[in-house]
Write a structure and sequence with these properties.
Chain C: One of its GO terms (molecular function) is transmembrane transporter activity. Chain C: One of its GO terms (cellular component) is ATP-binding cassette (ABC) transporter complex. The complex is a heterotrimer of chains A (222), B (268) and C (232). Chain A has 8 helices and 1 strand, in the order αααβααααα. The longest helix of chain A is centred in the first third of the chain and has 42 residues. Chain A starts with a helix and ends with a helix. Chain B has 9 helices and 12 strands. In chain B, helix 3 runs parallel beside helix 5 and helix 5 packs parallel to helix 6. The termini of chain C are far apart. Chain C is globular, with a radius of gyration of 22 Å. Helices cover 79% and strands 2% of the residues of chain C. Classes of the chains: A mainly alpha (222), B alpha/beta (268), C mainly alpha (232). Chains A and B meet through helix 5 and helix 6 of A and strand 8 and helix 3 of B.
Chain lengths: 222, 268, 232
């Protein structure tokens, strides 16, 4: 135990640095994923087959291949086609695009889960499509999709660990480096796991539950 | 393209006219060449067994469903069709949106917006569809909610209101659009017995104090008899019999009408 | 951040190269499928253990297993793979890359599958358990003859999704040297100094396997649902 405390004193700051990078990656990927999910989720419901088809292609492509392959492809192959990202950007772009595809299905599912009676009331009140979506349907869909989005955000957090494989200096990367010099694998990888666990259980999950509670009250839930 | 139907119904038209309207779901014909007129300010109740097409009549008038044949007119103008080069063709969405402002509907399951207060529910459409200002919409909504007896509940969300209260809010919400025709689709069927009365009272006062054309699908025979100007008995997609409440309830001519009424009244 | 854009400067796709590397990639694909299958089989069994352990009624056991499951689900699989591979030698046990990988994937997906099992078990009406008790069935008989057959159909979609998920996660094994598809592609890429064809082929191969599988699974699920409906 004493050894572990010494270990933390020596390497603690590096873990902190890595965690900060992980947090940055997670936040940036999350913004991208939310944007992509909203866009393609709604496109998926369009009546125009071209719009719907595009979103289906996007969703099936990013869900059908693994994040690691997409990450490598974006970082190593895309430059050959003319689009070059630095490794930090390639990292969160890959994670965001990938998890955004899963998010798109959540968005679609929750819009479809809004009771049909709401659409009929909007129809009877002669509301236009945009007003209906913005004022009535989407707010209710948001409440429905919050619980599974909580899980998705944790998957996103875990997904950012892969960016260490293209040498982004996140938490996972630091753990590997420290393990490489100290050979104290249990301490190095174990500490990293504990930090991921704490971020997921103590920050993300409670945060999402709080937002769910807030939005639920706003939606008139008792 | 409809050739045998007039482009408009001239002066003093009925408020609603169904002209040879047919509705099919696949093989099943739900409404069969229906002719139905509703005069201005008339109150018509539609009764009949389930599956007879009653609700379909309302839903088509509210443009929730498309008709397969025939034309529906509202206040003299075609609803389901529009005139182009002196011919009637199927209405496009723009025409429907224009006409839909004249028709309002109250649903069996209320369909209130759960994330808005009673006041919010009533103000929503006037502001965002009619373009009314916030102050105007607020004043009108408060007035209507007071009229339905919910002045003290205007800031409550639907989840905090009883079924009867929610339905009254739904009525106020529909009235806020000042429709010419108001449709009631079995509005008390989903309510507990003790709150049915309060909703019927609101409808009763609407009938007597306001000039509103009302079309009701209902199982509340006593109520229909009391406030209707005319009763239509539907059977298998057609009007089997229609007449004044006295005629229908006291002296039904059609055998089916008699069967239906005796079954319904026996159950009570 | 975003460094450049020229239209396709180095895009010279060589089909000859593709055919040269294809045999090695296909062989590696087989390895990948084996890894996915084995990992899934392990996860199926351990997941059931996790699920049943939480139904023993002994609060301590339930809480501990619950926390273990949460911990596994909250930490990245790639990190767990590293942990299991490198921790062994620290305490004198040498695990091969394959074994470490299978343990890591098995445990990781067991945690997810346990949630799917639990949902399936919970969906079986309480009355079924009570009927078994009234008929004096043993716990084993209750589970295997009555409960699990009813818990399985609602659990199938989730189980199918995780099968596809495991298949797509196998590339993570390359970080400890397991010779699966991504590992082979990277090796080829660095040997010939051409990454375009190897990585693109990996993507295509994954799509070719995962899309039909996902589609087939959905068909299978509706088949099961229909079959049940008919039986009811």
């Amino acid at each position: 135990m004493q050894n572990y405390v010494e270990y933390l004193q020596t390497y603690g700051s590096r873990f902190v640095d890595g965690t900060l990078v992980t947090i940055q990656q997670t936040l940036l990927a999350a913004f991208l994923a939310i944007f992509v999910a909203a866009l393609f989720g709604m496109m998926r419901l369009s009546e125009k087959w071209l719009v719907r088809g595009t979103s289906i292609v996007y969703i099936e492509f990013f869900r059908g291949t693994s994040l690691l392959v997409q990450l490598y492809w974006i970082f190593f192959v895309l430059p050959l086609l003319g689009v070059t990202f630095d490794k930090f950007t390639a990292g969160f772009v890959a994670v965001g695009l990938n998890l955004g595809a899963y998010g798109a299905e959540l968005v679609r599912g929750s819009i479809e889960a809004v009771p049909k009676g709401q659409y009929e009331a909007c129809h009877a009140l002669n509301m236009s499509y945009y007003k209906r979506m913005r004022r009535i349907i989407l707010p209710q869909a948001l409440l429905i999709m919050l619980p599974p989005w909580g899980n998705l955000l944790i998957e996103l957090l875990k997904g950012t660990a892969l960016v260490s494989l293209i040498s982004v200096t996140d938490l996972m990367f630091e753990a590997k480096q420290i393990n490489g010099t100290t050979y104290l694998s249990a301490e190095s990888f174990g500490t990293a796991m504990i930090i991921y666990y704490l971020m997921a259980r103590v920050v993300v999950s409670p945060g999402m539950r709080a937002f769910e509670s807030y939005w639920g009250k706003k939606m008139g839930r008792i | 393209m409809k050739e045998n139907f007039p482009l408009n119904l001239g002066s003093n038209p009925p408020m609603v006219r169904f002209s040879k309207v047919t509705k099919r779901y696949g093989e099943l014909t739900v409404l069969d060449s229906l002719d139905l007129d509703v005069k201005q300010n008339e109150i018509v109740s539609i009764i009949g067994p389930s599956g007879s097409g009653k609700t379909t009549v309302l839903r088509m008038l509210m443009t929730l469903e498309e008709i397969n044949d025939g034309v529906i007119y509202v206040d003299g103008q075609p609803l389901t069709h529009m005139s182009q080069n002196n011919l009637l063709i199927k209405a496009n969405e723009a025409h429907l949106r224009k006409m839909r402002n004249n028709i309002g509907m109250v649903f069996q399951h209320f369909n209130l917006f759960p994330h808005m207060t009673a006041l919010g529910n009533c103000m929503e459409a006037p502001m965002h569809v009619l373009g009314m200002s916030r102050e105007e919409a607020l004043a009108r909504s408060e007035e209507l909610l007071e009229m339905v007896g919910l002045a003290d509940k205007i800031h409550e969300h639907p989840a905090r209101l009883s079924g009867g209260q929610q339905q009254r809010v739904a009525i106020a919400r529909a009235l806020a659009m000042r429709p010419k025709v108001l449709l009631f689709d079995e509005v008390t069927s989903a309510l507990d017995p003790e709150v049915i009365g309060e909703v019927l009272n609101v409808i009763r006062s609407l009938a007597s104090e306001h000039s509103l054309t009302m079309l009701m699908v209902t199982h509340q025979m006593g109520f229909a008899r009391e406030i209707s100007d005319r009763i239509c008995f539907f059977y298998e997609g057609k009007i089997a019999e229609e007449g004044t409440p006295q005629q229908i309830f006291e002296d039904p001519q059609n055998e089916r009408t008699r069967q239906f009424l005796s079954a319904v009244l026996a159950a009570n | 951040m975003f460094e450049g854009f020229e239209l396709f400067p180095k895009f010279d796709w060589k089909w000859s190269f593709v055919f040269e590397i294809l045999p090695r990639l296909l062989w590696a694909t087989l390895n990948t499928l084996m890894a996915a299958g084995t990992g899934y089989a392990i996860a199926l069994v351990i997941g059931l253990v996790f699920a049943l352990a939480q139904r023993t009624g002994i609060r301590t056991v339930t809480l501990i297993v619950r926390e273990i499951v949460e911990f596994i689900r909250s930490t990245p699989l790639v990190l767990q793979i590293f942990f299991i591979f490198y921790v062994g030698p620290q305490f004198g046990i040498r695990l091969s890359p394959w074994t470490s990988g299978m343990i890591a994937i098995g445990l990781h997906y067991a945690a997810y599958l346990s949630e799917v099992y639990r949902a399936g078990l919970e969906s079986v009406p309480r009355g079924q358990w009570e009927a078994c008790k009234a008929l004096n069935f043993s716990m084993t008989r209750t589970y295997f003859r009555v409960i699990i057959p009813q818990a399985l159909p609602p659990a199938l979609p989730g189980m199918g999704n995780y099968l596809v998920g495991i298949f797509k996660d196998t590339p993570m094994l390359m970080v400890i040297g397991v010779a699966e598809l991504m590992h082979a592609a990277t090796a080829l890429g660095s040997t010939y100094y051409r990454y375009l064809e190897p990585y693109t082929m990996v993507g295509i191969l994954f799509l070719l396997i995962s899309l039909p599988t996902a589609f087939g699974l959905r068909r299978f699920e509706s088949f099961v649902a229909r079959a049940l409906g008919m039986r009811k």
